[in-house]
Amino acid sequence: MLGLTHHFLYVRTARRTFWATVHVWLGRTLITLGIINGGLGLLLSDNTRAGEIVYGIVAALVALTYVTVVVLSGRKKNSMGVGTGVGIAAKGSRAGDHS
Fold first, then answer.
1. pTM surpassing 0.70?
2. Residue 18 lies in a domain
């Protein structure tokens, strides 16, 4: 529901809203808690040591991939001026037209 609310508000305003920030940070928090929960679940499942090692490796790869995507997408947005108003032409004007 939060993603849908964010989408409708974004379509209406064409800018990042408070709900977009909540949506992004809630998602990041839940992904992190999910990885931790998986590791804690191994303790309750009476898993083997090898299973714990495999989960640790897979969880580390998922976490590393996730952090890499977040960092690279943040850099791309910053270089494009997304969210800063930089590089966005006013409605009805052409980019680079300063007259």
1. no
2. yes
Report the candidate in 82, 81, 71, 90 with the shortest Cα–Cα distance to residue 15. Answer: 82
90 assigned to some structural domain: no
Cβ neighbours for 62, distance < 8 A, ≥ 6 positions apart: 35
Residue 96 has pLDDT above 50, yes or no: no
Q: Are 59 and 65 in contact (CB under 8 A)?
A: no
Asked if residue 93 belongs to a domain, the reply is no
Helix 2-13 to helix 18-44 angle (10° resolution) is 160
Rounded CA gap, 36 and 93, in Å? 50
Q: In total, how many domains does the chain have?
A: 1
Structural domain that includes position 66 = 2-80
The larger pLDDT score, comparing residue 19 to residue 98, is at 19
Domain for residue 94, yes or no?
Answer: no
